[in-house]
From TrEMBL:
GO terms for molecular function: 4 iron, 4 sulfur cluster binding; cyclic pyranopterin monophosphate synthase activity; GTP 3',8'-cyclase activity; GTP binding; metal ion binding. One of its GO terms (biological process) is Mo-molybdopterin cofactor biosynthetic process. Keywords: 4Fe-4S, GTP-binding, Iron, Iron-sulfur, Lyase, Metal-binding, Molybdenum cofactor biosynthesis, Nucleotide-binding, S-adenosyl-L-methionine. Its EC number is 4.1.99.22. The keyword Iron applies. This is GTP 3',8-cyclase. It comes from the Bacteria.
Length: 335
């Protein structure tokens, strides 16, 4: 008889089956909500995990019950040889789902390879459909290339989710046009509360546009907007608009309403384990690997971290040893 796959649980009874792996801290955009205009101080190359080290960690996690891998950055395609690395990940026993988050600037030439590898979904970061606002937000004039990537992805069987950060005074006028994309296109457009991971780009944020206000703003334009069943582990509350091909989603990333069923962990580009987006890192995996630790020793350290996971993002934030007005850049922690 086939052996049932292992299931990994944290100390709160939540299954851990999804790891987000940041393959680089580098990015070719300079989004103001993520980093200052001059960028962040990137880590030296030897401080980043090698592909071989990432592959080893994912293999250990797969043996514990992790099934899904999402590759993030920075911008993943800034790092060379990303696709061959994805190919190797797809061959790890137990890994059944590999996906990708990208800003779309460098992605289009690689789409045929993503299809060949059986990549199931791509999350595309896109905060506006207006070229001038895109330039203001990202500090780069790359909207045409991102839209080319969007349409190239939609021409395949890869599921596309658009991630749009909602920023007061920056892109509020874009919420309805972005939502309108779902009328004719089979795409999920997800609106995300702004978070404090700006790398010192600006100080502590207020949240005038929380998930409730975003929903009511959308409902004002689409009175038929209604919630759909939300599976356990999902970060987005899903919504449908009658007559629309695609769907909408709202992610309460700052309000942190979904922590009770969170099933994901993060491996940063420098090998830090984060069991919550808001913690400051709970395990230095890179040091374990480079000190010659065996797989069993790495596995034991990971399990210890999973058994001491914060109950939610608020507890994780309170436990940070360094309290500061601005957090690290999202580019360093993998989105």
């Amino acid at each position: 008889m086939p052996v049932a796959p292992a299931v990994l649980y944290d100390n709160h009874g939540r299954p851990l089956e999804y790891v987000r792996v940041a393959v680089t801290d580098r990015c070719n955009l300079r989004c103001f909500y993520c980093m200052p205009a001059e960028g962040i101080e990137y880590m030296p190359k030897n401080a980043l995990l090698s592909y071989e080290e990432m592959e080893r960690v994912v293999g250990i996690l797969a043996g514990l019950g992790v099934r899904k891998v999402r590759l993030t950055g920075g911008e993943p395609f800034v790092r060379r040889d990303l696709v061959p690395f994805m190919d190797r990940l797809s061959r790890i026993p137990g890994i059944s789902d590999i996906s990708l988050t990208t800003n779309g600037v460098l992605t289009a030439p690689h789409i045929p390879e993503l299809v060949r590898l059986g990549i199931r979904s791509v999350n595309l970061s896109l905060d506006t459909l207006d070229r001038a606002r895109f330039l203001r937000i990202t500090r780069r004039d790359e909207l045409p290339r991102v839209l080319d990537t969007l349409h190239a992805l939609l021409a395949t069987n890869i599921a596309v989710k658009i991630n749009a950060v909602v920023m007061d005074g920056q892109n509020i006028e874009d919420l309805i046009p972005l939502a309108e994309l779902t009328r004719e296109l089979p795409v999920d457009v997800r609106f995300i509360e702004e978070m404090p991971f700006n790398g010192g780009s600006h100080g502590a944020i207020a949240l005038p546009w929380n998930h409730v206000r975003i929903r009511e703003h959308l409902r004002g334009a689409f009175p038929g907007l209604h919630a759909l069943p939300t599976p356990a582990g999902a970060t987005a509350t899903a919504y449908a608009i009658p007559g629309h091909v695609g769907q909408l989603g709202i992610i309460a990333a700052y309000s942190r309403t979904f922590c009770g069923t969170c099933n994901r962990i993060r491996l940063t580009a420098e090998g830090g384990l984060k069991t919550c987006l808001y913690d400051q890192g709970v395990l230095d995996v890179r040091t374990l690997l480079r000190a010659g630790s065996s797989d069993d020793e790495v596995r034991a350290a990971l399990m210890h971290a999973f058994r001491h996971r914060a109950a939610d993002g608020f507890e994780a934030e309170r436990q940070r040893p360094v309290h500061q007005l601005s957090f690290e850049s999202m580019s360093t922690i993998g989105g």
